[in-house]
Amino acid sequence: MATRGLTWTVALRLGRVSNVPTVWSNVLTGAVLADAAPSAPAIAALALGTSLLYIAGMFLNDAFDHAIDARERPERPIPSGFVSVSEVFVAGGTLMVVGYAIVLCASAFGAPGSLAGAALSGALLIGAIVLYNAWHKANALGPLIMGACRVLVYVMAAFAIAPPGASRLALPSIVLLVYLIGLTTIAKQEKRAAIATAGPVAMLALPSAYGIYAALTGAGAIAFLAVALLAGWTAYALSFVLVRSRFAPGRGVVSLIAGISLLDAVIVAAHGRFDLAICAIGCWALTTYLQRYVAGT
Predict the structure, then answer these.
(1) What distance in Å separates the CA atoms of residue 109 and residue 102, rounded to the nearest whole number?
(2) 219 vs 163, residue with greater confidence
(3) Are the C-beta atoms of 257 and 147 separated by less than 8 Å?
């Protein structure tokens, strides 16, 4: 079957670009966890490079899943004949190489040791992205690998600025990992008529509990705002999974993806950066807006 080629419209759909602001808030959080003072150009370069890695991962997801999508999601660009599998693989690989190079360039201006740490964590991130896309179907470890991808964004961004202490990274990384495991577990069941929710709901509630603890132990008013938004948004997203009259798992999943930025806002506020917490909240708002025009899954 002849294809129409990789146009900008097709690329936006393949890359799920509506979710890219959640990558930006991940980078901001990683920078805060580095406990340094990065320059705006360094943050912008890291955000650009990491965004390209995310988009590359989404390209590879469609390329690896094209046979399954032909049965379950025939409207996706590859099965609908807009672009070929080989074109998507080549584009995804190219974006990954360019994104990694940009991250390395940004880290070259960080503290001593930044380049080596960013290079290693970036390589691990690329490995996790490829592993997830190649092996996530019928793989019980899929949600864990997906969570590791986002955690490695924290780690990579932090090391690109200044090698952080392990204790500063540990708890936020665990909170993010648990949230992503819960989200991905629900997403893997998206096509089912009913979803097993007890475990995922408990996992998705953990970040709100973390935020409440942080707010009560002196993180301030912005932390209360961030955790209130996160808890309310998580409940809203889960209503599409738990409430029969509102049952629309796909909508719940994209809402939970947008909620990643609210989780970032909670973590950033807990570490005293209220200005960047507001930026992370803005990333959530932008993601929800863009998802109206470009599908988030």
Answers:
(1) 12
(2) 163
(3) no
Question: How crowded is residue 291: how many other Cβ atoms within 10 Å of its Cβ?
Answer: 19
Neighbouring CB atoms inside 10 A of 144's CB total 16
> The CATH number of 8-290 is which of 1.20.5.440, 3.30.70.790, 1.10.357.140, 3.40.50.720?
1.10.357.140
Of the candidates 49, 57, 51, the residue with the CA atom closest to the CA atom of residue 92: 57
Single out the residue of 199, 205, 260, 282 nearest to residue 30, CA to CA: 260
> Where do the domains of the chain lie?
8-290
User: What is residue 1's predicted lDDT score, i.e. its pLDDT?
Assistant: 47
pLDDT tens digits along 103-146: 999 888 766 667 888 899 999 999 999 999 888 777 778 889 99
Burial track 168-192 (b if 16+ CB lie within 10 A, e otherwise): ebeebbebbbbbbbbbbbbbbbeee
Length of the chain: 297
Q: How far apart are CA 235 and CA 50, in angstroms?
A: 29
Poorest-confidence range of 110-114, 149-153, 228-232, 241-245?
110-114
The pTM score is 0.89
Mean pLDDT: which of 29-33, 62-66, 122-126, 293-297 is highest? 122-126
Burial class from Cβ neighbours inside 10 Å (0-12, 13-18, 19+) for residue 140 reads: exposed
Following DSSP, what letter does each residue of 237-268 receive, concatenated? HHHHHH-GGG--HHHHHHHHHHHHHHHHHHHH
Q: Give the Cα separation of 233 and 170 in Å (integer).
A: 25
